[in-house]
Amino acid sequence: RTAIHDDTLRIVLDLRRDGAAPSVRLEGTALVAALGERRPGAPPAPAPAAPADGRVEERDPSGPLHLDVQFILDAAGRGASLFNPEVRPGDVITVLPAGSFQVDGWVGRPGSYPVTRGLTCAGAVSAAGGYLFPADPHRVVVKRIIGAGEQRLFTVDLDAIAAGRAPDFPLADGDIIRVPALRLVGSVDAWAANRWKIFVSLTGLAFWRWGWASLQFARAAIYRVRVFPRIRRQAQLAEARSGPVPEVTVMVVTYREKEWVTAAVFESILAELTTISSSTGRARIVVATGCDDDDVHIRRVYDRFRRESGPFGPHPELTLLREERGKRPALVAAMEEIVTAHPDPDGVVVFMDGDTVLAPGSLRKVVPFFRLTPAIDAVTTNEAGVVKGPGWFCEWISLRMAQRHLYMCSVALSGTLLCLTGRLSIYRASVVLDPTFRDQVGRDVLDHWLWDTYEMFSGDDKSTWYWLAAHRRRVLYVPDAVATTIEVVDGNSLRRAAANLRRWSGNSFSNSWRGIRLGPRRLGLFPWWGLIDQRLSIVTTLVGPLTAFVATLCGRYDIAAGYLLWAIVTRHLRAAAAWIHGRRFSAFYAPLLVLSEWIGSAIKLWVSFHPARQTWLNRGARMMDSTRAAGWYPLRRALAYYTFAVSWALLLVVISVSIGFLPILREAALFLGGSASRHAVRTWTRPSPAGTARGGADGRVARPAVWPASSDAND
Question: 60: domain range?
Fold first, then answer.
């Protein structure tokens, strides 16, 4: 029969002699039998002698006996009768409740957990989700209440326990486990044991990214303040000594541009040509158009200029061509027209887009550099943006132009560039006269591991740069000459921004690999490493947001909030660099910089599997994919989507394992280690006279005596 009294389960047994009413409860991890409350007049049961191993302890000859029943069960058949006293009528058996313990600090799920049989410190931390990356597994602290007003602290080394160098620490009711954060100073052992984690997280990632950004900023400042002014003075002296360039040809490619944009562009071109004096007086404009309206708009501006300048004013020659198949065919057609006129090899050819306006004096600032010795074969300039559309899009374009200006100045300090711009680049005429250059621009084919080869539809500036770098031609960045790009945003501005990022980032990513293969001797060490960094930054940029994402899924909102705070602070510092080099302050730079970096990295990762799919939303929505002609196109496309998804999953797993949210490495020994005995090893330590159950005088865990389990004991 059973009855419940004060949370104690009393089991009434019908014994043959006098009867008994034993009470059973669980205490800690062992069954404790309290043989007391004997009937009046009943003879006291003889207490068995306590063996030397301490498995039976008699605190008072007339008081209760404390037994480890689990040990008695495991020791069955091996002298268990020595430790198993006889139960007599009137005896009461009490099993105390298991109780609970608490886990706090750098674990996955801090909180209170029930004590289970055989629970140890390592198992408790594992039950709480395992320790996270900032934790110091060598200094886990267990606090135990010994008595009223008395407690003792034990230091546990979880890594030593996992490696088998130290025994695990058994827990009891009321224990509090504290998993502290790793101390960067003051703990040499902890530093040495966790040096690889600290290196990866701090010196390996944060210091690398910020060191690289700081180096870029410093190099850009040196180029603008010290190096470029000296180059400009040399160019002015060279022009004074050798005279102006023989001739200037402006080549423009436009496609269904708005009339007011075309008017602004060609008015700036005609105004700039009047400021340039050449030895032959020849100036020519060659335009490849996409429709009749483009021709009409250009003729209207040109005729008005001739009327205003008078019959004796400088009238550049105007040639209009029609090419509707795309920008690359239009560029080739315009270059072939220029070649037929047999230009002077030392003249200059200006490549322009139909939406780019020349700032006053920009050409006059550029052409003297083509009189330098050794010869400069290509020049590109600073850019600005004018947007007719949402305000945030205008701020985003301004931010990108400021970043471009900073990176261009930094790379230019090495005497080369990593990219020219299709909006405005100036070439020596001898470059355009080279048929291999025109072939490179007309049809540029890249290799890919999945698609074999594919053709670049856009990115002509990447093609021209690669030709110049492969042929060891000298290029220069002119930061004080500005070309202004007009962006007209019709429709969904977010889709337009994503399409632009896909083209810009995709072309840079696709072109970087063949640039890397040119080697540091041809490009220079810093520019070559810059190309490698462009590819590595795809992953390093995504580590932070993905860590915050995983932390949010695991309920660690403090980590996610901490990263967001870090992102806000650091991006304001990055934005300050853009403010300085762009000479414009904007409160939108920091949030736009965060989103641009994250989305840009994700797009680059997508482009690595879909390199040829590009979309244009300006001047009509168009989507082109040069890989459609590849064999097994549906299968390759499905494989591209599959590998893209696997890449994201693998990146999430690596980050989760590295920061400790997915404890694969820590728990691998449980699955990959040697096979353990089926029966556990029981440990026990006699309490010290000071009252400590399992600790030494210094508060550290003492190595317990080891008792083998019975061969036929139940697990």
Answer: 1-97
